[in-house]
């Protein structure tokens, strides 16, 4: 299956009204999207005006209304499989041959029909194993449902079935290769890999290449499926065709300019399991052209407890709204004289004392805590999506 950098927005946006109407059949979505006319949401600007739904809220929402918190239109029995992920978050599997949309990612990593794939993602309760299993089988591969662990038995499977490809975490691939080398086992059939679920530094990718394995990475989640994946000789990760991806300022639903680091928000216009502006809590930035992202760049969930009270990214965003003349903001939390100290760093074209004083008053009004203000030069704060930097020593 070839991959493409072409913008699929037109087709996806055309499906939005029907997906929104389907979502509103679920009671919690009906409340969340109250007053909405689905027919009016046909472009990105209209989509950006809808409220976000945060993944971090789902465990509490689901506890209030089991199993899906009222955000799934149909009953649990209408889905082929039902899972739980850490949180816990209860999640149904969509219908279809490749319900999580992973076959293009495997194809981009060089997997081909007729090959054998060793799948070391777990099949128990969580969907990881099934996500990659269905993708490989949709591509025409045979799958060894190995799951994680049991290194000795995995080496037996490799020698018996001679898989060309590996899917799993990069860490476990290294464990297998090291164990095989130490025991004198033949793992030479493995020549390609698609890894996910853990950091994949360039140094480890280079090590795999030295050992004869072309390893690429994918960014996927249990609830969404494949969000983006690496393609040969191209920068960053290509956004999957089946979803609309936005990058927003942490704590808001406001899209950031291209290249600015922000939180990933996805919309999946599926009629049975729609996800509308679902904020994942992960940070990234768009590369030029909008169809590629830099990959996972940290977490947007930056709440910090200061003097017994939580300070959240939404509050920093509110300060920014009240002072549109400012650039980036970052609230730095430190310790001094055995007490928490807050300093709001704000990019400003002026160092006017009156502005600093007004900003300090806004900080106190929004957070209910006192803090100091440091006005810094425009462009001097890092473009890392961090709006709260907790620099207090640990322990």
Task: Describe the protein.
This protein is of the alpha/beta class and 395 residues long. The protein has three domains: 8-93 and 243-299, ANL, N-terminal domain (Rossmann fold), CATH 3.40.50.12780; 102-220, ANL, N-terminal domain (Rossmann fold); 304-390, GMP Synthetase, Chain A, domain 3 (2-Layer Sandwich), CATH 3.30.300. Helix content is 27%, strand content 25%. Helix 10 packs across helix 11 (353-367). Mean pLDDT is 93; it is low at 1-7.
**Helical proportion, percent range:** 25-40%
Distance between the termini: 51 Å
**How many domain regions?**
3
- Round the Cα radius of gyration to an integer and report it: 23 Å
CATH H level, superfamily name of the largest domain: ANL, N-terminal domain
CATH C-level label of the largest domain: Alpha Beta
Tell me the layout of helices and strands.
Blueprint: H1 9-23, H2 27-32, H3 44-47, E1 53-54, H4 58-64, E2 82-85, E3 89-92, H5 103-108, E4 116-119, H6 128-138, E5 142-145, H7 151-161, E6 165-168, H8 170-183, E7 192-195, H9 202-210, E8 214-221, E9 225-229, E10 237-239, E11 244-248, E12 262-268, E13 275-284, E14 292-293, E15 304-306, E16 309-311, H10 313-322, E17 329-336, E18 339-347, H11 353-367, E19 372-376, E20 388-390
Parallel strand pairs: 1-13, 4-5, 4-6, 6-7, 7-8, 17-20, 18-19
Antiparallel strand pairs: 2-3, 8-9, 9-10, 10-14, 11-12, 12-13, 15-16, 17-18
């Amino acid at each position: 299956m070839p991959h493409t950098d072409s913008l699929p927005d037109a087709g996806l946006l055309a499906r939005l009204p029907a997906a929104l109407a389907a979502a509103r059949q679920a009671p919690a979505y009906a409340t969340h999207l109250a007053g909405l006319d689905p027919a009016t949401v046909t472009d990105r600007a209209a989509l950006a005006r809808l409220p976000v739904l945060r993944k971090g809220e789902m465990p509490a929402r689901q506890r209030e209304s089991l199993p899906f918190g009222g955000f799934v239109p149909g009953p649990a029995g209408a889905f082929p499989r039902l899972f739980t992920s850490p949180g816990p978050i209860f999640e149904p599997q969509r219908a279809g041959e490749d319900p999580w949309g992973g076959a293009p990612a495997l194809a981009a990593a060089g997997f081909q029909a007729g090959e054998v794939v060793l799948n070391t993602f777990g099949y128990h309760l969580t969907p990881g194993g099934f996500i990659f299993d269905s993708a490989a089988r949709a591509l025409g591969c045979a799958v060894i449902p190995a799951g994680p662990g049991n290194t000795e038995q995995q080496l037996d499977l490799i020698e018996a079935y001679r898989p060309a490809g590996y899917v799993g975490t990069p860490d476990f691939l290294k464990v297998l290769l090291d164990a095989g080398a130490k025991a004198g086992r033949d793992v030479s059939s493995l020549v390609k890999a698609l890894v996910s679920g853990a950091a994949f530094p360039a140094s480890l990718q280079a090590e795999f290449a030295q050992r004869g394995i072309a390893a690429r990475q994918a960014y996927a989640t249990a609830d969404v499926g494949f969000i983006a994946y690496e393609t040969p000789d191209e920068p960053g990760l290509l956004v999957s065709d089946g979803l609309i991806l936005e990058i927003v300022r942490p704590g808001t639903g406001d899209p950031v300019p291209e290249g600015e680091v922000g939180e990933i928000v996805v919309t999946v216009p599926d009629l049975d399991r729609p996800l509308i502006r679902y904020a994942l809590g992960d940070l990234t930035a768009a590369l030029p052209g909008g169809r590629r992202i830099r990959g996972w760049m940290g977490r947007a969930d930056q709440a910090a407890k200061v003097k017994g009270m939580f300070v959240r990214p939404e509050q920093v965003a509110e300060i920014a709204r009240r002072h549109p003349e400012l650039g980036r903001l970052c609230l730095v939390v430190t310790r001094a004289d055995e007490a928490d100290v807050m300093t709001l760093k704000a990019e400003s074209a002026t160092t006017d004392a009156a502005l600093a004083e007004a900003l300090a008053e806004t900080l106190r009004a929004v957070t209910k805590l006192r803090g100091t203000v440091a006005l810094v030069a425009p462009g001097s704060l890092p473009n890392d999506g961090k709006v709260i930097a907790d620099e207090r020593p640990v322990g």
